[in-house]
Design goal:
The structure holds 3 protein chains of 3 kinds. In chain A, α2 runs antiparallel to α7 and α2 packs across α8. Chain A is globular, with a radius of gyration of 19 Å. Chain A has one domain. By secondary structure, chain A is mainly α. Chain A has 10 helices and no strands. By secondary structure, chain B is an all-alpha fold. Chain B has one domain: ABC transporter involved in vitamin B12 uptake, BtuC (Orthogonal Bundle). Chain B has 15 helices and 2 strands. In chain B, a hairpin with a 2-residue loop joins β1 and β2. The longest helix of chain B has 27 residues. Chain B is globular and about 55 Å long. By secondary structure, chain C is α/β, with parallel strands linked by helices. Chain C has 2 domains: about 200 residues, Rossmann fold (3-Layer(aba) Sandwich); about 160 residues, Response regulator (Rossmann fold, 3-Layer(aba) Sandwich), CATH 3.40.50. The radius of gyration of chain C is 22 Å and the shape is globular. The relative contact order of chain C is 0.13. In chain C, the strands form 3 sheets. A 5-stranded parallel beta sheet of chain C has the order 2-1-3-4-5, with helices on both faces. In chain C, strands 7-6-8-9 form a 4-stranded parallel beta sheet, with helices on both faces. In chain C, strands 10-11-12 form a 3-stranded antiparallel beta sheet, with no helix packed on it. The N terminus of chain C is likely disordered. Chains in contact: A-B, A-C, B-C. Chains A and B meet through α3, α8 and α10 of A and α6, α12 and α14 of B.
């Protein structure tokens, strides 16, 4: 029973990892950047939401805060990330690593190291049934939003001009540059989109756990693993990868709690030995 | 290892310089390092700080064999640093009173881990390679955090201290100053080994891999084997540095395994210049000093360190050594 | 980023280097001087505590308390006619960094004494370092029992309570009022282990049983899987032994799952700072508070709280502020008594030191016990007011003097040895 509960709970948790992983995966795919500052952008958007909620309410903040974070993301892309596209991935990795430190420090300076409460609407804040108490309205809402936004993203990538260009850029950047697509603009748009996903995930996370400047730190590593397990370059992979590690760590928590964190890295290790490109990854991408 | 065009043109043969100039610079460096306990306090520094600079320099030079000379972007070398530290600490705490034996065991543990795990990581290239190395590193981090009874968990490993080294006829006490010289000896040995490797045929293969991996593959060279070898050697050197770090504070904690340390080691390489043999030493000097000084004058030290990361990768991709070398030529 | 204009181009780059080099050299050659006018050299107290990381809020409160005390002391003429200077270094919540910073304070600033630390693991590592280097260390905020127990040393004193004192502050009441079946959610490091051991001993002695528990790593964001286990065990009391931000995350999720409706939530440590970070719905539970600014009938307390709030922009002193405050005063009093800044002499003078009422700020007069160097401070068991507004958020049920609930020095297991 407990194991079943934990597996189910892991599924919910996994949907959340996936939501984070999708944003990371987008940026990794087209921009070729492992965005270490993803956790920082998550916390930033959540703080924006915290400040906005008194004026525009939770739903307004959920809409506006990711856009604001995306705007900051645009500035960052223009000032820093853009200069590094042509260089070795090392440089963008280190730049975003430094950026993560700066964002965390600025958040602490502005809003204080002390956590702040992010209030969510009351009707979401209840368990739906007494037996399955861990399924709250809010968590279901998070899962729903993760699914909807992933589907939405798929739709954008499949049916819009921007999306098709992003996908084309993913597979061959030089060619689409040669046929006249402004790849700099495309990459900016993609970066901003990824940051907006980070922002959405951040606000949703803050509704569930405490909002502190360091909140993104602990959340980001599982999403890296989700990407590797699912396969770099595949959004579907990130989604499935997130679900897999969520369930695995949920079940492990019931059976052998001490290995709850280690298990996801073990899964990744097994995946790398058995199928190095991940579940849905394309061979040879980003190498 | 990226197939993308690289904007920056690198020195193809960074190790070949006019002999007299090289020798002159080397003697200056050696004299400066040997006399640290004399001149450093006059500038307001302290000897342990110098030991820390050398330890991080050694770790970064080890990493740089893989990063700067073979072209493998590992974001997980903290794992081998930490394994070295834990190996040494656990030996001294439980099994032996010999500092040198503990250092040897710590170095072996970290190095062997790199030897065994390198082949897994080299299955992929580019960004994928980095992500795998991060994840392997984090795995060790969580093991150290969770395996309380053996590693001390989150509290870190205490209960050991560096023991005097007994040699036939004399004893070295390993107080602050003599410990600095132990670190200096290890640093010298480590850099001599790295230098020798880089100037051997093996080293030339490493540089060739960095410059053009495809061509080597066409020539029938097993590139992944060579990268794994580079990974292993760099693991041993980093583990040696880690085991010295445990001795420096008589303490080690899971922080020594965390990805943030890997990031710090990388930025040390970049700051000093990763195409230059002594670059990481310069980088460690800058980074450790800035970190030490800034964190005690402002709460916002993270912003300063973050800016060091961002500004140095944007404006000084060749690092201090590369920058000054270029200027002196023009 | 005011120098954005300089980001492009050769000139900006050169300017940056020159400026950077000049700054670096200048700061190395001229370390910052204190602003004390007198010719006397200051007595330096090195304070290692968290201004960043998981314990940042608590560390900052402690530092504010310490600086508040130093300002008070200097206003009244300092210690031994010399000014008192508190040099703060950030341990970022990590024992390794803590030791690095301690060695920096000692080697570079030649501090006379150490104080600070919030994370128990840092307390233990600094204690070991201080003793090895012959310096007094007054631990302000790390609660782990063994610091003044088996791991005690001549150099280490402690102002905050042991986990034993804290847990016995409310274990009896909890068992009596809420039930005998207990479940623990415990933070996985020295402090949590120590708390859980103590509660287990006390609860089983009172006829209770431990129906389960889980060790939770520091920095865990999601508690759902732990809470599923906890609820499946059907305890009467769910005992939260978490620290820093983790406590907040757990409380928030417990409220969302409605677990606090049928299981009583309790624990030892809960801080004013943490309550402020929780939404109103998560204001519940029984805790053992270590100090509170609202003690209606105790002299000096309200005056202190008012002066403190005036200094720090309306922020009220927390238990952490008091730890920092009392630690600095204790060092000053002991140094005056010893007429020296020699660590061994000051340590001797601190043994048996009784905090005067204007420093103790509680109904009893706590003493630094000579046998194990533990301050016998009192406990304020109580509950969080469900509708309280900061700073009036705690309902204190009782005041229990520390000496009545502390383990005896023999039980604590300390063997004090001074350097010969």
């Amino acid at each position: 029973m407990v194991i079943l509960f934990n597996a189910f709970n892991g599924l919910i948790q996994g949907a959340f990892y996936a939501l984070m992983a999708v944003g990371l995966s987008l940026i990794l795919g087209l921009n070729g950047v492992i965005n270490f500052a993803h956790g920082g952008f998550m916390a930033m958007a959540a703080y924006f939401a915290y400040t906005l909620i008194p004026y525009v309410g939770f739903w307004g903040a959920l809409l506006i805060a990711p856009i604001l974070a995306g705007a900051v993301g645009y500035v960052v892309e223009q000032l820093i990330v853009r200069r590094l596209y042509l260089r070795d991935p090392l440089y963008s990795l280190l730049a975003t690593f430094g950026l993560a430190l700066i964002i965390q420090d600025l958040l602490r300076t502005i809003w204080g190291a002390q956590g702040v409460p992010l209030t969510i609407p009351d009707f979401l804040n209840q368990p739906l049934s007494d037996v399955y108490f861990f399924i709250t309205g809010y968590r279901l809402f998070v899962v729903a939003l993760a699914i909807i936004s992933t589907i939405g993203l798929f739709a954008i990538l499949r049916f819009t001009r921007l999306g098709i260009r992003i996908r084309a850029g993913n597979s061959d950047l030089e060619t689409i540059a040669a046929v006249g697509v402004n790849i700099y603009l495309l990459r900016s748009a993609n970066f901003v989109l990824g940051i907006m996903f980070a922002g959405l995930a951040g606000i949703l996370a803050a509704g569930q756990i405490g909002l502190t400047p360091t909140m993104g730190d602990e959340l980001i590593m599982p999403s890296f693993v989700a990407i590797v397990v699912g396969g770099v370059g595949s959004l579907l992979g990130s989604l499935v990868g997130g679900l897999i590690i969520g369930v695995a760590s949920g079940v492990t928590a019931a059976v052998y709690p001490a290995a709850t964190e280690v298990i996801i890295y073990v899964i990744m290790g097994i995946m790398l030995v058995a199928r190095p490109r991940g579940l849905f990854g394309q061979e040879g991408l980003l190498e | 290892m990226s197939s993308q065009a690289t904007e920056i043109k690198h020195d193809a043969a960074p190790l070949q310089k006019p002999a007299f100039q090289q020798r002159y610079a080397f003697i200056c460096l050696a004299v400066a390092l040997l006399t640290v306990p004399v001149w450093l306090p006059l500038l307001g520094g302290y000897t342990d700080l110098a030991s820390r600079v050398l330890i991080f320099a050694l770790a970064a030079m080890g990493l740089n064999l893989l990063l700067g000379f073979t072209g493998g972007l590992s974001f997980g070398h903290a794992a081998y640093f930490g394994l070295g530290a834990y190996g040494t600490g656990l030996m001294l705490a439980n099994y032996t009173h010999s500092t040198l034996l503990a250092v040897a065991v710590g170095t072996m543990i970290g190095g062997l881990a790199a030897t065994l795990l390198g082949p897994i990581a080299v299955r992929r290239r580019g960004i994928y390679f980095s992500m795998i190395t991060i994840a392997i590193g984090q795995m060790f981090y969580f093991i150290a955090v969770r395996w309380n009874s053996f590693t001390g968990g989150e509290d870190g490993l205490t209960g050991f201290s560096r023991q005097p080294i007994h040699m036939p006829g004399f004893t070295i006490s390993l107080h602050t100053t003599s410990f600095y010289y132990l670190v200096l000896v290890c640093f010298a040995v480590g850099s001599w080994i790295l230098w020798t490797i880089l100037n051997s045929p093996l080293g030339h293969v490493f540089v060739a891999i960095r410059e053009n991996q495809k061509r080597l593959t066409f020539l029938g060279i097993r590139v992944d084997v060579y990268i794994a070898v580079s990974f292993a050697i760099s693991g041993f050197v980093v583990a040696l540095a880690g085991s010295l770090d445990a001795l420096l504070d008589n303490f080690t904690s899971p922080d020594n395994l965390k990805y943030t340390l890997s990031g710090n080691l990388l930025i040390i390489c970049v700051l000093g210049g990763m195409r230059n043999f002594w670059g990481p030493l310069v980088g460690a000097f800058i980074f450790v000093l800035v970190q030490d000084y800034i964190s005690s004058i402002t709460q916002n030290w993270m912003t300063v360190i973050g800016l060091v990361f961002v500004l140095s990768v944007i404006f000084f991709p060749l690092g201090a050594m590369g920058f000054f070398r270029r200027r002196s030529r023009s | 980023m005011s120098n954005q204009n300089n980001f492009r181009g050769e000139i900006g780059r050169r300017g940056l280097i020159k400026a950077g080099a000049a700054l670096g050299a200048a700061s190395l050659l001229y370390p910052p001087k204190p602003s004390w006018g007198a010719s006397e050299s200051p007595i330096k107290i090195g304070m290692v505590d968290s201004t960043t990381g998981n314990f940042a809020v608590l560390g900052q409160s402690t530092i504010k308390g310490a600086q508040f005390a130093a300002a008070e002391i200097n206003k009244k003429g300092g210690v031994l006619g010399r000014p008192l200077q508190v040099l703060v270094e950030d341990d970022a919540g990590s024992p390794g960094t803590g030791v690095d910073k301690a060695s920096r304070l000692l080697d570079q600033s030649q501090v006379d004494f150490f104080t600070g630390t919030t994370n128990s693991a840092v307390s233990l590592s600094i204690s070991q370092y201080a003793a090895a280097h012959g310096k007094l260390f007054v631990c302000s905020g790390g609660h782990v029992d063994k610091l003044t127990g088996p791991a005690c040393n001549w150099a280490t004193f402690r102002t905050c309570s042991t986990t034993w004192i804290m847990t016995s502050g409310n274990s009896g009441t909890l068992v009596k009022e809420f039930g005998k079946k207990w479940y623990f959610l415990t933070t996985d490091y020295a402090f949590g282990h120590s708390e859980q051991d103590d509660y287990t001993k006390q609860v089983t002695a009172l006829g209770g049983t431990i129906v389960g528990g889980a060790l939770v790593p520091v920095g865990t964001p999601d508690f759902s899987s732990y809470l599923i286990q906890a609820r499946a065990a059907k305890p009467d009391v769910l005992c939260l032994l978490l620290a820093g931000d983790d406590q907040i995350n757990a409380m928030k999720q417990i409220t969302q799952f409605g677990i606090n409706k049928d299981i009583h939530i309790a624990g030892a440590l809960f801080e004013l700072e943490q309550i402020a970070a929780l939404p109103q719905a998560a204001h519940y539970g029984s805790w053992s508070f270590e100090w509170y600014w609202d003690q209606p009938n105790v002299p000096h307390v309200h005056d202190f709280a008012k002066r403190y709030a005036a200094t720090y922009g309306g922020q009220y002193p927390s238990a952490r502020s008091w730890f920092g405050y009392a630690s600095i005063h204790a060092i000053a009093l002991a140094a005056e008594a010893a007429k020296s800044t020699d660590s061994v002499k000051v340590a001797k003078a601190m043994e048996g030191l009784v905090l005067p009422p204007e420093v103790a700020l509680q109904a009893s007069a706590p003493v630094y016990r000579p046998e194990d160097h533990q301050l016998m401070l009192g406990m304020f068991p109580g509950t969080v007011k469900p509708a309280g507004k900061y700073p009036d958020v705690i309902k204190v049920d009782a005041y229990i003097p520390g000496a009545t609930i502390a383990q005896t020095p023999e039980q604590a297991g300390c063997k004090m040895v001074y350097p010969s």
